[in-house]
Structures are given as C-alpha cells and as structure tokens.
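Session log. Operator J.P. requested a structure for one protein chain; no other inputs attached. Running the standard single-chain path with token output.
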Amino acid sequence: MIAYSKKIPFPLLIALLYVVSGCQKEFGNDNYTAYFGGEVINPKDNFVLFLKDDEVVDTIFLDKNNRFIKKFDSLAPGMYTFKYEPEYQYVYFDKNDSLMVRINPVEFDESIVYCGRGDEKNNFLMELYLKNEDDKNKMFDVFDFGVEKFISNCDSSYESKKKFYNSKKSKIKWSDDFDLYAKTMLNLHHFSKKEIYPMAHKMRTGENVNNQLPSNYYDHRKDVDFNNKLLVNYSPFVRYLTHFLGNVSFSQINSVNVEEEDLEQHIHKLNIADTLFKNEKIKNKILDNIAFSYLLEDQNIINNQTFLKRYNELSTDKSKQNEINKIGNSIQNLKLGNELPDVALIDLNGNKISSQSILNRKTVIFFWTENADSHLTAVHRKALDFHKKNPDYQFVAINIDEDQTKWKKVLENHRFGIINEFRAADFEELKDKWVITKLHRSIILDETGKIHNGFVNLFDVKFNDQLK
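Structure written below.
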C-alpha cells in the first residue's frame, strides 16, 4: 500500500497511483485492490462519501490539505458513486483501477476530471453527461417545434453524441460491463426526449400531437430492458422510466376535469409500474418518483389521500413510504388560503430579509439557477410577458445558487428590468418549507399575500388563467 503522506504533492500522488496500477497489471494481480482519492477545492465539508447502490461503502475524510485517499483491499468491479453533499457523480471501477478526482463544489460537475488507471472511460462518461446536460438546458424551445422539426433536431443531437460514443469506445476499448452504462446514458437521454415531447408540447402550446407522430416513433421502447437490476440506481435509466410512464398515462387519460385528470393519470402510472416492473427495487424506485411528482402538483386533500392509499398498497419500501407520507402532510401547509411559510432571502445589496416582508400582495414567485441558462432566459421572458398582461402582480424571481457575486453578474448581463430579484439565503430551508424540488415550480399569492396556487408551472399554456 502507498504510504500516503500529507506532504506528497497532488500531481506526484497521481503518478504514484499510475505506478501502482501499472505494477498490478504487469504482475497479473489476482486480487481486487483498488484506490480512490482526490482533492477538494474550497471544501465546505471534511469528507467524501463513497457509495454502491445508494449504500455508503466508506466515508473518506479530507486531510489538512483538502486531499483524500482510500485503499480498498477488495472492490468488486462495477458502477459506484461518490457524494460531496449535496452533489454526487458516478465512477466506474474495473479490477485494480486506481482513480483520483479533483472536485470543486462551486462548479461540481464541470470541475470533475479523473486521473489514474481507469481514467479514460470515466472522463468519457463525464463528457457525455455534460453534453446531455447542455442538451437538456436547450430543450425548452425545442419542445415547441412541430413534429417533423422536433424529430429532426432530436435525431441530429443524438447522432452527434453517438459518433462521440463510437469514437471513444473504439479508442478506449472498454469492457462490456462498462458499455452497459455508457450506452444507457447515450440512448436513454435520447429516448427520454422523445417521451417528454408530446406532453411538453401540449403543455406549452396547447396542441396534442399524438396523432401526428409517425408509426415508428416509439420503436425505441423495444430496446429498453425495463427490469435490468444493474441499472436500478442509475439515474439515466430511472429518469427514462419515469418519463415513459408519464407519457403512456398521458396518452390514455379520459377525464375532462383537471384535478380528476391529474389523479387519474398518476394512479394509472402506479398501476402500469406495478404490472411492468418485476424487479422489486426498480418498481419501488419508480413508485417513489411517481409519488414525488404527484404530491408536488396536486393540492386536493381528498385526491392526495386517494393517491397515497394506492401508493402505499403497491410500495414495499417502508422507509420511502414514511418519507413520502411526511411530504404529503407537509404539502398541506401550502394549500389554498394558507400563508406561505417565512424563509430568509438575500437582496442585491447582500441584506438578509424576511420573505413575508415582500410577499404581502398579488405575487408570482418563480425559481432559477445559472446552471440552467436556457431556462433562466425562458422563465424570465415568460414572467415579463405575463407582467404586461397582469401589471397588478409583482413577479419575484428567486435564485437557488450560493454565490452572491456570480448571481449579480448574471443579472447585470441580462437586465430583466421590472422583475424583483432575490436569492435564497438557505436553499435547504426553502426546499423544506416551500417543498421546492424542481426548477419549473411557481407559486401564486393573492392580494393579501396568501396562497392562491402553490403548485403551478409558468410554462403551462393556461397559466394566465390562474391570475384572473
């Protein structure tokens, strides 16, 4: 084992890992020794969590130079995650890999670069992930396209990334086991866009395009193994399954009442999941996602009870059941006519203020982050359009990032004018009290500052009706 000295420079430490991993390869080592380490720039916590299948394998503490390293005497090949709260990312280990990673919490995903044995395939995975994230940030306008233009745009984006994937696969010659994750990240991002499109297009434009889709539009579903237990905790897989269920139920609902339609759609999702997924872990994961989604969209107390009754009948994960039922109870605090719980906000001068001091009149609240640039622009543009039609409302934008200087710089570059801009002083407080778990959420307050609609989307084609 390397005698890890706190005086060893980071580049030298990487070189030593190369030597160790190279020796292991040369002498045909039959054990499963592996190393994982790195450096955290400007750390907020003094440890990194190393996980397998959402279970903590080890807590690796930083030294006084913000570096960490861990030798695993026996580490089974496969996909792992490391977490530096609240962010996480994937890392794949083949036998005897030795990997170092540099982490910057401020720009977490963009900062990650791997060095050591096994670095090429992991750096490829990060590159592909960032390409997908960039693609997601550009989706908002793409979903407004007509069918032919959307398919052309979607396929063009996919072919570009597929070319990148094929090139790296040929060069690196990674294993079939790793290829499962690489191909899943490539394909299921593409498949997810195709599942989202009919729903997003209807919500944003009011047009139902289901009858306009070509007969082979959903052929990709034949290529998805819905019960692959190796992918149960892999986010591209779980995300696709969630979008797939949403689209299937969306195309089959019959109710004309909005609240009944939403309840019917989500219970239909639960029933499809119960039938489709044979793997218990996958089924529970998807049931949980459906429950989170529903509870953040519906405020009807009777409907919530009906939905949770069916969810609890199907889920076998008692821990998640308790968490979701707790959220269901918390959401009742945000029902029609209630006061919005007070949270701390930061103004442009850096002063901390109470949300209640500014949210005491007709208000639309929406959220944004500099990490989703396309959404940042689109949501402010929507708010400005709605303000012209509804000048009696104030529009309040709340940024969920932590850097005051970068937040102000973004606003200076865009100049959104009449919109009142604030930043969350503590995102965890905001998330817990206002149940903010997705960026598209908006909140409408009435003339007394009480909740008119706590769960609404600014991009909904019928949003303006909520303001009348």
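Operator note: The chain is about 45% helix and 20% strand.
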